[in-house]
User: Which sequence fits this backbone?
DNA sequence: AAAAAAC
């Protein structure tokens, strides 16, 4: 418990400006060498040195030369102090892994991080951890359950993959002992594309070891009908329904799963996915299972569900919950009615624009026909992606996007969450998003890993009732909104519903916090120009809190 | 409040 006060101390100064620089640190050295080299990390983020995993990763590879690890760190002098606190508090938390503890306080020793994992981290040019990585990874490595909320494009995937692979120690095939048989870790994601992307990240950390990581699909499921093959699998990445199908066929046993991650947790916990996810959870019967949930958004209802699933969880919030990054400059554009949208978009395309860009529509047919219209109007390299397409068509569209061959990608909600196309400079909401969460995730396809981005949202007269809630999101994240929009009447029913939820939740410790934060948020909206101040005050409270 | 996504 105290150990996490240390974490919170590190994060307390994690306000908007510094957050920006912190996220920039995530930059891969390959793409922007000049930035990562000169970035004054610890100075800015005041990261306790021992949480700076990636620095140790560099040191670890170079056999941790003293000069190497310390030269870049301005906070090196305070290290002994931090070290002592950390050591003391380690006893305060349950020492679940039973390794007593050791003399060395480098994370790789403290947490017994396998050498190959450290070197793979470095080989992938991860230089400095982002906020969610620095604060989330130690919690997971301590074998605690975790609810982590961190904005889009801040490296959540690595935050859970790295600790899982560290705690699993090595591929099951090379471990002889009490690890048991069968899948030891599962990551759930709401779309195939996202599962695939997570799988790719996982493979990067798995090189040079015989990790069996399985991207679960019809094809892989059938190869795993054989129990012997199944027993050799270390990690499964899957969408919920695919997993449930195999469970029900009796072709998958999850009684050896020690780590379960729900990525895009609020999506996975909404009504359509919930039953499936609950079935997966109840099939994971190992008593020491560690569960964690990750998302950029976690509405009160989803959070309550999540807290019910997790056991004695730590909750961390980096930046502001349910708020996009200030790096994304957002605007809203009035287009009267649906018929006016295409002309507006074509006018937009008549001017110079920055490809690749991502366009969101509300339905599959609209995505298809908009892509066709744009092509007919001479726009080059227009692509389309929605869940009505075949698996191959979907895979091809993603690869074209990854290779930079798509300049304009028209898509539905399926692309809204988690997808990391590094080049996307701009997102256009051709159709108005159906929730604040959807909005935040959609525009979060740009402004990733410290780069800036642009988001344009079309709205018609029909969208007017929902405009104000989106406008508030713009305000929260530092974009400006025309006055008249702010004067719109409140979407009263919606508001009342939310308030009701909060009231009910107030009996539980965890939810009391949500209520308070929402109250602060509301005040922030009213405060207008004082908004920024309020945000800064709020961050430390929110950053780490104990729940249940 | 409603579409999309999951097999």
Assistant:
């Amino acid at each position: 418990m105290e150990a996490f006060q240390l974490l919170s101390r590190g994060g307390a100064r994690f306000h908007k400006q510094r957050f920006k620089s912190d996220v920039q640190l995530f930059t891969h050295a390959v793409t922007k060498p000049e930035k990562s080299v000169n970035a004054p990390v610890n100075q800015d983020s005041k990261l306790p040195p021992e949480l700076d995993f990636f620095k140790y990763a560099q040191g670890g590879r170079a056999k941790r030369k003293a000069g190497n690890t310390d030269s870049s760190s301005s906070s090196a002098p305070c290290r002994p102090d931090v070290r002592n606190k950390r050591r003391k508090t380690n006893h305060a938390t349950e020492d679940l892994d039973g390794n007593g503890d050791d003399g060395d306080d480098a994370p790789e020793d403290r947490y017994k991080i396998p050498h190959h994992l450290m070197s793979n981290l470095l080989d992938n040019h991860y230089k400095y951890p982002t906020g969610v990585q620095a604060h989330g990874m130690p919690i997971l490595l301590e074998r605690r359950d975790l609810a982590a909320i961190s904005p889009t494009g801040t490296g959540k995937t690595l935050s859970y993959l790295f600790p899982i692979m560290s705690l699993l120690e090595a591929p099951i095939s090379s471990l002889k002992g009490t690890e048991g048989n069968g899948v030891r870790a599962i990551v759930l994601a709401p779309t195939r594309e996202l599962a695939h992307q997570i799988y790719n990240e996982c493979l990067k950390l798995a090189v040079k070891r015989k990790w069996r990581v399985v991207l679960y699909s019809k094809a892989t499921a059938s190869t795993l009908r054989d129990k012997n093959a199944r027993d050799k699998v270390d990690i499964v990445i899957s969408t919920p329904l695919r997993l449930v199908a195999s469970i029900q066929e009796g072709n998958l046993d999850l009684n050896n799963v020690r780590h379960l991650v729900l990525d895009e947790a609020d999506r996975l916990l909404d009504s359509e996915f919930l039953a499936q996810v609950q079935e997966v959870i109840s099939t994971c019967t190992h008593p020491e299972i560690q569960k964690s949930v990750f998302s950029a958004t976690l509405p009160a209802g989803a959070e309550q569900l999540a807290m019910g699933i997790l056991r004695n969880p730590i909750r961390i919030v980096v930046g502001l919950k349910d708020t996009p990054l200030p790096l994304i400059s957002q605007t809203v554009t009035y287009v009267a009615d649906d018929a006016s949208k295409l002309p507006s978009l074509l006018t937009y395309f008549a001017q110079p624009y920055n490809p690749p860009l991502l366009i969101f529509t509300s339905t599959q047919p609209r995505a298809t026909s908009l892509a066709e219209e744009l092509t007919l109007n001479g726009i080059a390299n227009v692509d389309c992606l929605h869940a009505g397409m075949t698996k191959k068509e979907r895979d091809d569209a993603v690869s074209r996007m990854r290779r930079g061959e798509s300049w304009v990608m028209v898509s539905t909600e399926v692309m809204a969450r988690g997808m990391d196309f590094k080049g996307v400079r701009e997102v256009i909401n051709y159709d108005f998003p159906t929730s604040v969460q959807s909005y935040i995730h959609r525009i979060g396809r740009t402004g990733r890993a410290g780069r800036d981005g642009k988001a344009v949202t079309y709205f018609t007269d029909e969208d007017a009732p929902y405009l104000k809630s989106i406008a508030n999101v713009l305000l929260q994240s530092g974009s400006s909104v025309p006055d008249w929009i702010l004067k719109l009447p409140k979407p009263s029913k919606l508001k009342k519903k939310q308030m009701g939820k909060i009231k009910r939740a107030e009996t539980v410790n965890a939810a009391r916090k949500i209520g308070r934060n929402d109250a602060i948020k509301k005040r922030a909206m009213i405060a207008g120009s004082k908004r920024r101040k309020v945000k800064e005050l709020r961050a430390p409270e929110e950053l780490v809190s104990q729940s249940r």
